Automatic annotation (TrEMBL):
Compositionally biased intervals (Basic and acidic residues): 1-16
Pfam family, one: Fumble
Signal peptide coordinates: none
SUPFAM superfamilies given in the database record: Actin-like ATPase domain
InterPro entries per record: ATPase_NBD (IPR043129), Type_II_PanK (IPR004567)
Positions of region (Disordered): 1-24
Descriptive protein name: Pantothenate kinase
Source organism of the structure: Brachypodium distachyon
């Protein structure tokens, strides 16, 4: 069975802005030999472990880049985390078992056995993330907070009024989960445009070596140097007529299209700021659409790519508030990047068969996409039996429909009848974004040249797949085969743009943004 962790009286002590988050004190946990759990993701390895401090036990946190696995091994040895850790199947260290989650737990099990002499008890990633979030929200006062208009405010969470909620976990990609209770959740959908995309493009555009360096650059930049706003397109009078703010973002990187500047003519700080706003706003919009479809008002954000970064949280909070008309509020979690590792740590002390099964954890499985309503699916299965004239068909049967207009940005319009329509929502990631980034990354001079390049490229040269994270079998529990794109540009390791073929970059750009346009289109159809 092993040792259970006593969570009663858990308390955060220290500066909330501390790197990785301050320790969590466990006053009733015996200060005995350490416990260690790991979350080995697509780009980072996160560790949560118990340690003794002044006679009390506390949870501590550490992280390493996945490509520096040996540094993680050395840390584990130096901290004495193999002393009497976890579960044993015998008396020797070779029989030691560590709790681990994330795709890397499957890929690097042999490395842990060879280098540390331990086996990994592989736990499902989504199960662990939800368990970690529930642990923080139910046991740790001050773990949840908002960050908007420059102010951070703690949020009091009542365990009796917590469920259901939406959990948006921002890792290399993004997973969106509806959490209905302890051990009860459903992965609703996900997107391949996440932290791995931001960091991959940031390396290529700015030459930054780390994600923290990218975040620091973004703090000093101005995204309006490269972003196209509504005023730039239609002027102030049209903005007033349509009730749009003149400063509303219309197309990320959209100004690059009409500029004669090359990549080297732009400041790294402005490029970084534009990247951050483009993708954090997009994540917030997707979260709003899913929350709206599911009727959820409580939305929590976690994941290792938030990192307590003020602008990241400000952007997400502003965008969610804007699109929901203040009906949804973004709530963030202390130790947001360690949810999976925390959940894995909580599993110590229980029998192996207590781990969640597919039926236990998910009410339904939809392979990463929201299901179409049954009645709509049935109606579209066969054409109508009656025969009508073309005019009758056009007048009576085509309405209503959704028109997705892809220009510099994207507008999604519900057409109700002749001359009757309503713009439902739009996206700042459209054709202007694709061509703007294409010009910076490939030097192409026209959209036609970009499309030609993309036809000859291979996006898998730079895109991170589920197979790259989990191995050849993919992630079958949630229906994701190994070939599924997990993070666009997530495989970019070099900060030298010249290390990559322009054709491959063009193919990755086209795939990432056209797929992104398709997702909200489906969700809007589901709401109809």
């Amino acid at each position: 069975m092993g040792r259970r962790i006593d969570l009663s009286g858990a308390e955060i002590r220290g500066d909330p802005a501390e790197d990785g988050g301050p320790p969590i004190f466990l006053p009733r946990q015996p200060a005995a030999s350490p416990l260690l759990a790991l979350d080995i993701g697509g780009t980072l390895i996160k560790l949560v472990y118990t340690a003794s401090c002044g006679g009390e036990a506390e949870l501590r946190f550490a992280k390493f880049e996945r490509r520096r696995l040996d540094e993680c091994f050395e840390f584990v040895r130096a901290e004495g985390l193999l002393g009497c850790n976890g579960t044993k199947t015998g008396s020797s260290k070779e029989n030691m078992i560590l709790k681990a989650t994330g795709g890397g737990a499957y890929k690097f099990g042999d490395d842990f056995r060879e280098k540390l002499g331990v086996s990994l008890d592989k736990l499902d990633e989504m199960d662990s993330v939800v368990s970690g979030a529930n642990f923080l929200l139910q046991n740790v006062p001050g773990a949840a907070f908002t960050h908007m208009n420059g102010k951070r405010n703690s949020v009091d969470i009542s365990p009796d009024n917590l469920f259901p909620y939406l959990l948006v976990n921002i890792g290399s990609g993004v997973s969106i989960l509806k959490v209905n209770g302890n051990r009860k959740f459903e992965r609703v959908t996900g997107t391949h445009i996440g932290g791995g995309t931001m960091f991959g493009l940031a390396k290529l555009l700015t030459g930054c070596k780390s994600y923290d360096e990218f975040l620091q650059l973004s703090q000093k930049g101005d995204n309006f140097v490269l972003d196209l706003i509504v005023k730039d397109i239609c002027g102030e009078l049209v903005c007033q007529k349509q009730g749009l703010s003149t400063s509303t973002l219309a197309s990320s990187f959209g100004k690059v299209i009409t500029s004669m500047k090359k990549l080297t003519d732009y400041r790294s700080e402005d490029l970084a700021s534009t990247l951050l706003s483009a993708f954090t706003y997009n994540i917030a919009q997707i979260s709003f659409l899913v929350a709206s479809l599911l009727g959820l008002r409580r939305v929590f954000f976690g994941g290792s790519y938030i990192r307590g970064h003020k602008s990241t949280m400000e952007n997400i909070s502003y965008a969610l508030d804007f699109w929901s008309q203040s009906q949804n509020q973004a709530v963030f979690l202390q130790h947001e990047g360690y949810l999976g590792a925390l959940g894995a740590l909580m599993s110590y002390g229980g029998p192996r068969d207590e781990n969640l099964t597919l039926e236990d954890s998910q009410e339904k499985l939809n392979f990463g996409f929201l299901p179409l309503p049954k009645e709509n699916t049935q109606e579209s299965a066969a054409p109508p039996a009656d025969v009508t004239s073309a005019d009758e068909h056009n007048d009576s049967n085509i309405f209503p429909y959704l028109l997705v207009n892809i220009g510099s940005g994207v507008s999604m319009i519900e057409v109700i009848g002749k001359g009757k329509f309503e713009r439902i929502i739009g996206s700042h990631l459209g054709g202007g974004t694709i061509l703007g980034l294409a010009r910076l990354l490939t030097g192409c001079s026209s959209y036609e040249e970009f499309l030609d390049l993309s036809q000859r490229g291979n996006n898998l040269a730079v895109d991170l797949t589920v197979g790259d994270i989990y191995g050849e079998h993919g992630y079958p529990k949630i229906g994701l085969p190994a070939s599924t794109t997990a993070a666009s540009f997530g495989k970019v390791n070099s900060s030298k743009l010249s290390d990559y073929k322009v054709e491959d970059l063009a193919a990755a750009l086209l795939n990432s943004f056209t797929y992104n346009i398709g997702q909200p289109t489906l969700w809007l159809i589901c709401q109809a």
